[in-house]
Design a protein that fits this description.
The protein is built from 17 helices and 23 strands. It has helices at residues 49-64, 106-115, 118-125, 134-144, 146-151, 158-167, 174-177, 192-197, 220-226, 240-247, 300-310, 323-332, 372-398, 415-425, 437-449, 456-463, 474-508; strands spanning 5-11, 15-21, 27-34, 46-47, 72-79, 84-87, 97-98, 154-157, 172-173, 183-184, 189-190, 208-209, 214-217, 233-235, 255-260, 264-267, 280-283, 290-296, 342-344, 362-364, 404-408, 428-432, 466-470. The chain is globular.
């Protein structure tokens, strides 16, 4: 039978999903399995890397049970970024993986500034100081678990771990490794001088190949465990943010994607390497190009947190609506600005533009007139303000105006949120046709690699579509424009010193 489908694998923070895609970017079959996070201390997050593999095997077996496995032309993996695991010579973990959202390395972020300088690190790696990157966490391991660093044969991103389990090859891609903050972006390889100066052995990192390269083939052993056929090529993928951009067809300047997921990730396309405090710069899945990207740790996570903790109880009402849907209906009836309530959505620190791991969320404007729906709308507005702040920095730094945002992720299902983003930014907002754009990006790389299309850009053009567009309301945009420029832009800078001190006194417990 002709090989007419490719499999995209998305190993995210909470689950692995495998999707079989046809040549037009349509879903043929899919399967999903979840795994747990471990939090040994507040704001520490880990996972058992073996569960990534066991979950991948489960979803691939389920997927191949739905289709003729001979139809599969290739497999490509996208994944949660910055997360890493130290392993031995046989790719067996020697400790739990440390996740991207882990916050244990705040002191090491400060140490990096003292030893190297934040500006120097950002110029080399494209990333400002943040606990989300792997570099400060490696310093934390050096200090607190030196035996792990000594024993580690390799330090692997999620992609590299799963690629080895599938192929017995030590390899990853540039667009998978670079979010770790360990890559010299101009050279497209490990930042040897930087890492060596910090006492990190660069031999512990695997060879890097461009996204879309063939990294290896499924081994006989992996075939038995996954249901795939031995010999199927495994294609170099990209981190989930860059993959989502590819799945939204952000392959030329002028547009950006906005993934309203657990974290908010938004990125544009640049032919040249640019560095700015307003974004972090990553390698594009299209070799030689870059992705200026905004990352906000609290996206739908913040919405879900609020609904879980403060949402209305609907269990006894027997309504065909969830608590979140009830709040959405109520919030949609409110005026822009949430009756004077404004929120800065730093529920999980902030990367660009302030690069402050001690940052926490802020709400101002409370009065006795406010109810739950005002706070709910303020969350949606606050995230939209933050998106505008970052994307204005991207447009200025790249000298390329952005005239459309392609939205995806769970939050894009909210018509209210889509319209708020359009009204706050004054920019057309369009939904991607699939909420699985991240996985589709992996499918696009696989499709180009097996020769279905001449190149990745052509594959993206042919395999992606969009749905409803939301145009900004000029009257409402003027209201939001004043709120953004006259209040929001200056809000965190005005309170930063107090917010950081509060965090130090209460979370770090070292405020002496």
């Amino acid at each position: 039978m002709k090989s007419d489908i490719v499999i995209g694998v998305d190993s995210s923070t909470t689950a692995v999903k495998a999707i079989a895609w046809d040549k037009r970017g349509k879903i043929v079959a899919q399967s999903r399995a979840t795994f747990d996070m471990i939090s040994p201390q507040p704001n520490w997050y880990e996972q058992r890397a073996d569960e990534w593999w066991l979950s991948l095997c489960e979803v691939l077996r389920n997927l191949t049970a739905q289709i003729a496995v001979s139809r599969v032309a290739a497999v490509c993996i996208t994944h949660q970024r910055e997360t890493f695991v130290p392993v031995d010579e046989n790719c067996q973990p020697i400790r739990n993986a440390i996740l991207w959202l882990d916050d244990r390395s705040r002191l090491q972020v400060d140490e990096l500034d003292r030893r190297v300088g934040n500006d120097v690190i950002q110029d080399i790696t494209g990333k400002g100081p943040s606990t989300k990157q792997s570099l400060p966490k490696l310093l934390w391991l050096q200090e607190h678990e030196p035996q792990v660093m000594e024993r580690a044969y390799k330090i692997l991103d999620v992609h590299a771990f799963l690629v080895y389990r599938l192929t017995d090859k030590w390899a990853t891609s540039t667009a998978c490794a670079d979010p770790m903050g360990l890559i010299d972006m101009r050279r497209g390889d490990w930042a040897t001088d930087l890492l060596t100066s910090l006492g990190i052995d660069t031999d512990k990192f695997v060879p890097i190949q461009p996204s879309g390269s063939v990294l290896g083939e499924v081994t006989d052993k992996a075939a038995e465990q996954t249901g795939l056929l031995a010999g199927i090529p495994v294609i170099a993928g990209a981190g989930d943010g860059q993959s989502a951009g590819l799945g939204a067809n952000i392959t030329i300047p002028g547009k950006a994607y906005l993934n309203l997921g657990t974290a908010v990730v938004s990125g544009a396309f640049s032919e040249t390497y640019v560095v700015s405090k307003y974004f972090r710069t990553l390698c594009s899945p299209i070799s030689g190009a870059y992705v200026p990207e905004e990352v906000l740790g609290g996206g739908t996570f913040t919405v879900s947190w609020f609904v879980d903790q403060f949402g209305p109880e609907v269990g006894n009402l027997k309504l065909p609506l969830s608590a979140e849907e009830l709040l959405e209906v109520a919030a949609s009836k409110l005026p822009p600005g949430s009756l004077g309530l404004m929120l800065v959505p730093y529920w999980n620190g902030v990367m660009p533009p302030y690069w402050d791991p001690a940052a926490t969320g802020i709400t101002i404007g409370w009065t006795g007139a406010h109810r739950r729906e005002h706070f709910y709308r303020a969350i949606l507005e606050g995230i939209a303000y933050e998106h505008r702040l970052a994307m204005e920095g991207v447009a200025k730094s790249t000298n390329q105006p952005l005239d459309e945002f392609i939205l995806m992720g769970g939050g894009s299902k909210s018509a209210l949120w889509c319209q708020i983003v359009a009204d706050v930014t004054g920019t057309k907002v369009t939904r991607a046709s699939t909420t699985e754009a991240t996985n589709l990006g992996a499918g696009i790389l696989a499709a180009a690699a097996v020769g279905w299309y001449d190149n990745v850009r052509t594959a993206a053009n042919e395999m992606t579509t969009t749905e409803r567009s939301f145009m900004p309301d000029d009257k409402i945009h003027k209201i939001y424009d004043r709120l953004f420029n006259e209040v929001y832009v200056g809000l965190f800078p005005a309170l930063k010193q107090s917010v950081d001190r509060l965090t130090q006194l209460t979370f770090d417990q070292n405020g002496e």
